[in-house]
Amino acid sequence: MKKDPMKDKDRHRYDDILSLPHHISVSHPPMPARNRAAQFAPFAALTGHGEAVKEAARLTEKKAELDENCREALDRKLCILRERIEEKPLIRITRFVKDPKKEGGAYETITGNIRKIDGYARAIYLTDGREIRMEDISEIEEP
Fold first, then answer.
1. Would you give the DSSP letter of residue 99?
2. What is the pLDDT of residues 8-55, one digit of tens each?
3. Helix locations, 12-67, DSSP H
4. Which residues contact 87 (CB under 8 A, 6 or more apart)?
5. Among candidates 109, 107, 139, 114, which has minimal Cα distance to 129?
6. Less packed terminus of the chain by CB within 10 Å, N or C?
7. 3-state secondary structure of 49
8. In this structure, what DSSP letter does residue 19 have?
9. Rounded to whole angstroms, how far apart are CA atoms 63 and 27?
10. Strands 105-118 and 131-133
11. Is residue 68 a contact partner of residue 26, using CB atoms and an 8 Å limit?
12. pLDDT at residue 132 tops 90
Protein backbone atom coordinates (compact mmCIF):
# COMPACT_ATOMS: atom_id res chain seq x y z
CA MET A 1 0.00 0.00 0.00
CA LYS A 2 1.34 3.33 -1.06
CA LYS A 3 1.34 6.37 1.27
CA ASP A 4 -0.33 9.51 0.02
CA PRO A 5 2.10 12.42 0.65
CA MET A 6 -0.80 14.94 0.77
CA LYS A 7 -2.56 13.12 3.62
CA ASP A 8 0.65 12.95 5.58
CA LYS A 9 1.20 16.67 5.00
CA ASP A 10 -2.39 17.51 6.16
CA ARG A 11 -1.94 15.43 9.28
CA HIS A 12 1.02 17.55 10.40
CA ARG A 13 -0.27 20.90 9.15
CA TYR A 14 -0.86 22.32 12.68
CA ASP A 15 1.98 20.69 14.56
CA ASP A 16 3.69 24.05 15.02
CA ILE A 17 0.79 25.62 16.97
CA LEU A 18 -0.56 22.62 18.92
CA SER A 19 1.91 23.09 21.75
CA LEU A 20 1.36 26.85 22.15
CA PRO A 21 -0.32 28.05 25.40
CA HIS A 22 -3.99 29.14 25.32
CA HIS A 23 -4.36 32.92 24.87
CA ILE A 24 -5.98 34.79 27.77
CA SER A 25 -6.98 38.38 27.09
CA VAL A 26 -5.69 41.09 29.39
CA SER A 27 -8.42 43.59 28.52
CA HIS A 28 -11.48 41.28 28.35
CA PRO A 29 -12.36 39.08 31.34
CA PRO A 30 -13.29 35.47 30.51
CA MET A 31 -16.99 34.88 29.86
CA PRO A 32 -18.77 32.60 32.36
CA ALA A 33 -19.55 29.13 30.98
CA ARG A 34 -23.31 29.73 31.42
CA ASN A 35 -23.20 32.82 29.15
CA ARG A 36 -20.97 31.09 26.67
CA ALA A 37 -23.45 28.19 26.40
CA ALA A 38 -26.38 30.60 25.94
CA GLN A 39 -25.18 31.63 22.51
CA PHE A 40 -25.98 28.11 21.29
CA ALA A 41 -29.44 27.94 22.89
CA PRO A 42 -32.50 27.89 20.63
CA PHE A 43 -34.42 31.11 20.21
CA ALA A 44 -37.98 31.96 19.24
CA ALA A 45 -37.73 33.11 15.66
CA LEU A 46 -41.44 33.91 15.64
CA THR A 47 -41.91 35.99 18.77
CA GLY A 48 -45.41 35.52 20.19
CA HIS A 49 -46.22 32.58 17.93
CA GLY A 50 -46.54 30.16 20.86
CA GLU A 51 -48.97 32.48 22.64
CA ALA A 52 -51.01 32.94 19.45
CA VAL A 53 -51.32 29.17 19.04
CA LYS A 54 -52.44 28.77 22.68
CA GLU A 55 -54.99 31.56 22.25
CA ALA A 56 -56.38 29.97 19.08
CA ALA A 57 -56.66 26.61 20.83
CA ARG A 58 -58.46 28.07 23.86
CA LEU A 59 -62.11 27.08 23.77
CA THR A 60 -65.04 29.36 24.46
CA GLU A 61 -68.72 28.61 24.84
CA LYS A 62 -71.59 30.12 22.97
CA LYS A 63 -74.16 31.94 25.10
CA ALA A 64 -77.31 29.86 25.43
CA GLU A 65 -80.57 31.68 24.72
CA LEU A 66 -83.10 31.13 27.50
CA ASP A 67 -86.58 30.02 26.53
CA GLU A 68 -89.71 31.83 27.76
CA ASN A 69 -90.22 29.47 30.73
CA CYS A 70 -86.70 30.03 32.03
CA ARG A 71 -87.06 33.81 31.72
CA GLU A 72 -90.34 33.73 33.63
CA ALA A 73 -88.77 31.60 36.38
CA LEU A 74 -85.87 34.08 36.68
CA ASP A 75 -88.33 37.01 36.83
CA ARG A 76 -90.28 35.29 39.63
CA LYS A 77 -87.08 34.69 41.60
CA LEU A 78 -86.06 38.33 41.13
CA CYS A 79 -89.48 39.52 42.39
CA ILE A 80 -89.14 37.37 45.50
CA LEU A 81 -85.60 38.68 46.07
CA ARG A 82 -86.78 42.31 45.62
CA GLU A 83 -89.27 41.79 48.46
CA ARG A 84 -86.46 40.51 50.69
CA ILE A 85 -83.86 43.11 49.65
CA GLU A 86 -83.63 44.54 53.21
CA GLU A 87 -82.32 41.14 54.40
CA LYS A 88 -79.52 41.27 51.78
CA PRO A 89 -80.20 37.64 50.83
CA LEU A 90 -77.37 35.30 49.89
CA ILE A 91 -77.68 34.06 46.30
CA ARG A 92 -75.77 31.96 43.81
CA ILE A 93 -75.92 33.31 40.26
CA THR A 94 -74.69 31.57 37.13
CA ARG A 95 -73.87 34.11 34.45
CA PHE A 96 -72.26 34.29 31.03
CA VAL A 97 -69.04 36.30 30.82
CA LYS A 98 -68.11 37.44 27.31
CA ASP A 99 -64.53 36.69 26.29
CA PRO A 100 -62.58 39.91 25.62
CA LYS A 101 -60.46 38.37 22.83
CA LYS A 102 -62.65 35.82 21.10
CA GLU A 103 -66.25 35.25 20.14
CA GLY A 104 -68.18 33.50 22.89
CA GLY A 105 -67.22 33.30 26.53
CA ALA A 106 -67.65 31.16 29.62
CA TYR A 107 -70.19 30.58 32.36
CA GLU A 108 -69.23 31.38 35.93
CA THR A 109 -71.04 30.98 39.22
CA ILE A 110 -70.93 33.79 41.76
CA THR A 111 -72.09 33.67 45.36
CA GLY A 112 -72.83 36.88 47.23
CA ASN A 113 -75.35 39.01 49.06
CA ILE A 114 -77.68 41.27 47.09
CA ARG A 115 -77.44 44.97 47.86
CA LYS A 116 -79.71 46.32 45.12
CA ILE A 117 -81.78 45.16 42.15
CA ASP A 118 -82.03 47.94 39.56
CA GLY A 119 -84.79 47.23 37.03
CA TYR A 120 -84.03 50.35 35.00
CA ALA A 121 -80.31 49.54 34.60
CA ARG A 122 -81.19 45.81 34.41
CA ALA A 123 -78.48 44.95 36.91
CA ILE A 124 -78.05 43.28 40.28
CA TYR A 125 -75.53 44.82 42.66
CA LEU A 126 -73.88 42.71 45.35
CA THR A 127 -72.63 43.95 48.70
CA ASP A 128 -69.01 43.33 47.63
CA GLY A 129 -69.39 45.85 44.78
CA ARG A 130 -69.85 43.44 41.87
CA GLU A 131 -72.44 44.27 39.22
CA ILE A 132 -74.25 41.52 37.33
CA ARG A 133 -76.19 42.39 34.20
CA MET A 134 -79.56 40.65 34.08
CA GLU A 135 -79.19 39.63 30.43
CA ASP A 136 -76.11 37.59 31.37
CA ILE A 137 -77.86 35.58 34.10
CA SER A 138 -78.84 32.01 33.31
CA GLU A 139 -79.72 30.82 36.80
CA ILE A 140 -80.42 32.20 40.28
CA GLU A 141 -80.65 30.07 43.39
CA GLU A 142 -80.47 30.52 47.13
CA PRO A 143 -77.84 28.24 48.68
1. -
2. 667 778 888 888 888 888 898 888 888 877 777 776 667 778 888 887
3. 15-18, 33-38, 49-57
4. none
5. 114
6. N
7. helix
8. T
9. 67
10. unpaired
11. no
12. yes
